[in-house]
Amino acid sequence: MEPFVVTENLTKTYGTIRAVDGISFEIQKGEVVGLLGPNGAGKTTTMKMLTCFMPPTEGRVRVAGLDVVEESLEVRRRLGYLPENVPLYDDMGVWDYLDFVARVREVPAAGRDAAIRQAAARCGLGPVLGKPVTALSKGYRQRLGLAQAVIHDPDLVILDEPTTGLDPNQIVEIRQLIRELGAEKTVLLSTHILQEVEAVCDRVLIINEGRIIADGTPAQLHTEFQGAQQLSVLIGGGGKTEVSAALAALPGAENVECGGGRGKPVAATVSSPRETDLREAIFRLCVDKGWVLLEMQRRVVSLEDIFRKLTVKDGS
Amino acid sequence: MNGAWAVFRREFGAYFGQPVAYVVIVAYLLICGWFLNATLFLEGQATLRNFFAMVPLILVFFAPALTMRLLAEEWKNGTMELLVTFPLRDIDVVLGKFLAAFAVLAVAQGLTLMYPLTIGSLGNLDGGQVASAYLGTLLLGGALLAVGLWASALTRSQIVAFIVAFFICFGLNMLGKILPLVPGALVPLVELLALDTHFNNMVKGVVDSRDVLYFLSVIAFCLMGTVTTLEGRKWGAG
Questions:
Q1: Average pLDDT score, chain B
Q2: What b/e sequence results for A276-294 when a residue is b if at least 16 CB atoms lie within 10 Å of its CB, and e otherwise?
Q3: SS3 of chain A: helix, strand, coil, percent, to 5
Q4: Which of B10, B13, B81 minimises the CB distance to A83?
Q5: What is the ipTM of this complex?
Q6: Higher-confidence residue: B232 or A114?
Q7: Is A73's CB within 8 Å of B3's CB?
Q8: How far apart are CA B208 and CA B128, in angstroms?
Q9: Pairwise CA distance, residues A162 & A145, whole Å
Q10: Fewest CB within 10 A of the end CB: N or C in chain B?
């Protein structure tokens, strides 16, 4: 079966600028995919093409087997969209707004009130249903934005930076909501916040300057970009040169950097190939020599490191 | 059509949910009432001629005021981005908004029916002529609103939308008044394009299919222009 979302060589040019430059990816039904990239990388433009806001300059997008240009209306019926900055009609009430969206989203009249109540309950809008949109706090605006995106029970939900501008508590709540959505729907969300991806996404697409530069689960990306393994250790009771030499002599140790010493514990960083685990050897070494192992920490490459490595141009 | 109906409901509600509709209707009635009564008792005739003579100029101000918000605000607030990703055809959006503005105008114009009713009770008023003039006013209003809607699609600024629409409406209205200055060969063309020549025919009580067709053409042309402008997002900088 064809994946739920397929993009082939998706390209969008604004004048001479290639905002999106030949992106191809697939999203399986039920996946929660994070589109990660710095500001201006082409995330929003990609989403605007997926949501039929504008057609691609080149390439194709199919959602549920339907082309976004040829069968735009059908595609739009199947998706819910929350644009960046959460545009809402400030002159309406919360209930009226949801009622309007339900009508244009073709929710049948018989189930309309139920659909509004369900979307409102799901997004925690209960307390503000009777209020005007202008009276909502930023967190509630975001919830209302999410509610309008799911009111017609779409298969695909596209969220453009859904947590921007929220306080930490609200961010946690919105992520919780997205995770709940992800349990039954296909979700594509964009963000430049790395923790967000690790918190909610099954899969990450890292995008920079209009191209996809990495694609995988957060765990896969960790392994792939984990270069040398690094252990930071703090050893008491030995001299700096002595400790340094002993560590370097361990089988598998490639590079040892030492600091401290002279009466203070020696702080050393030991690098080794990815597959070698030196932790046990270091412990035994200290026991043999009568040193005290005060600290040992394995440094794992964070998604943040990967992201910086991929998106910041190397000066050298 | 359900989409256009949903948009109409929202926009019509927005007019009356905010002061816009009330301000426009009250001001329209005050100004119309002034022009009606200023001469009515001096002339002592049961006629609405003086009132309808002023209607085009009054509408040239009021129609752009009604339409300036309709699309410019969607662009400015970013709600356009959401609106066009709903399963609505662009024509649904445009029709819904146009009809909402038209409905407000119809309410305002409908309230002026008290003039013919009261005057008709005082003297011998030509009912057919009044009906024709009212039809003409609605058609004229529709044409001006369609111009205004298109202007609103072109910009993010309501002020710019108002000025552009006002300028075009005013120009179309003035065409009939500058006929003596136009080179002879162009007179038929200018007369054809002028709003008020067509409107004046209807005020006189003549419902000619050419005049009706003229107003309907202006409306259709401007609404299609609005749809094309909305579609322009697909090729522009969106």
A1: 90
A2: bebeebbeebbeeeebebe
A3: 35, 30, 35
A4: B81
A5: 0.88
A6: A114
A7: no
A8: 14
A9: 9
A10: N
Domain A228-299 indexed as CATH 2.60.40.3140: no
pLDDT for the residue numbered A177: 87
Asked if the Cβ–Cβ distance from A92 to B82 is below 8 Å, we say no
**Closest CA–CA distance from residue A16 to any residue of chain B (Å):** 12
Q: Is B130 exposed, middle or buried (0-12, 13-18, 19+ CB in 10 A)?
A: buried
Q: Break chain A into its structural domains and give their ranges.
A: 5-224, 228-299
| Blockwise average pLDDT, block size 10, chain A, 316 residues | 87 87 90 88 90 89 90 92 91 93 92 92 89 91 92 92 84 87 91 82 89 85 71 86 86 81 82 80 89 84 71 56
B75 contacts in chain A (CB < 8 Å): none
Domain A5-224, CATH homologous superfamily name and number: P-loop containing nucleotide triphosphate hydrolases (3.40.50.300)
Give the pLDDT confidence score for residue A148 in this predicted structure.
Answer: 94
Would you state the pLDDT for residue A196?
A: 82
**Which residues on B lie below 8 Å from A100 (Cβ)?**
6, 9-10
Greatest extent of chain A over all pairs of C-alpha atoms, in Å: 81
For B14, which of A55, A91, A105 is closest by C-beta distance?
A91
As beta bridge partners, residue A93 has A132
